[in-house]
Design a protein that fits this description.
With 197 residues, the protein is mainly alpha-helical. The protein has helices at 40-71, 83-113, 118-142, 153-160, 162-166, 171-185; strands at residues 73-74, 77-78.
Length: 197
């Protein structure tokens, strides 16, 4: 098991008894973290792939919401004809398009410099988490009360993405990790740090 700050751990040999839950067989205690025993490039690559997985889920969520608002009839016409619904769906689509661009850039950056792109990958993860919060909320709201019922794919999709949204860190912890990564590794951008040209 590796962490975004370079720590590593191995599963303790005496895992003990299962927790009695569905995840019980997959949960066990870890030994102490040892930073020298992890291939950090693999962890950075894994987090990059998780961000791409979130991007795919958000694209699917917008597609599901678009289909729903075009097929749901209210007051004799599809709810997609209402301006408020159009604005919400457009905002969600723009968020996903922005995440797609950042994901493409980060993939290129990782392929160019490897684990030195840690700050870029963590920045992508942070943006993916913030995007997921907004897009999933909007798409579930556009489904109405059915958006939280497992008879609809949007509910299942949102639930299945929860581990990716919470592990290894949520939004606040990821922001702290990004601050540390920029401090340690620097950050390559269009403008120098501090905003001076």
């Amino acid at each position: 098991v590796g962490t975004l700050d370079g720590g590593a751990s191995f599963v303790a040999s005496g895992a003990g008894q299962a927790l009695g839950t569905r995840l019980g067989p997959f949960v066990s205690p870890l030994n102490d973290l040892r930073p020298t025993e992890v291939n950090f490039g693999d962890i950075v690559c894994q987090q990059l792939l998780v961000s791409w997985t979130l991007l795919g889920a958000l694209e699917n969520a917008v597609s599901l919401a678009t289909f729903h608002v075009n097929s749901r009839i209210q007051f004799g016409k599809p709810i997609a004809t209402f301006q408020a619904v159009q604005f919400q769906l457009a905002d969600a689509a723009v968020i996903v398009a922005g995440l797609r661009e950042l994901a493409g850039f980060t993939l290129w950056r990782f392929s160019s410099v490897g684990e030195a792109a840690r700050a870029d990958v963590i920045a992508l993860r942070l943006h993916a988490l913030e995007s997921a919060r907004a897009v999933f909320r909007t798409c579930q709201q556009l489904h109405g009360a059915a958006g939280v019922c497992d008879e609809y794919d949007i509910s299942i999709l949102t639930r299945m993405m929860q581990p990716a949204l919470r592990l290894p860190a949520g939004i606040e912890q990821t922001a702290e990790l990004l601050t540390d990564a920029v401090t340690m590794d620097g950050f390559v951008g269009l403008f120098p740090l501090g905003g001076k040209v």
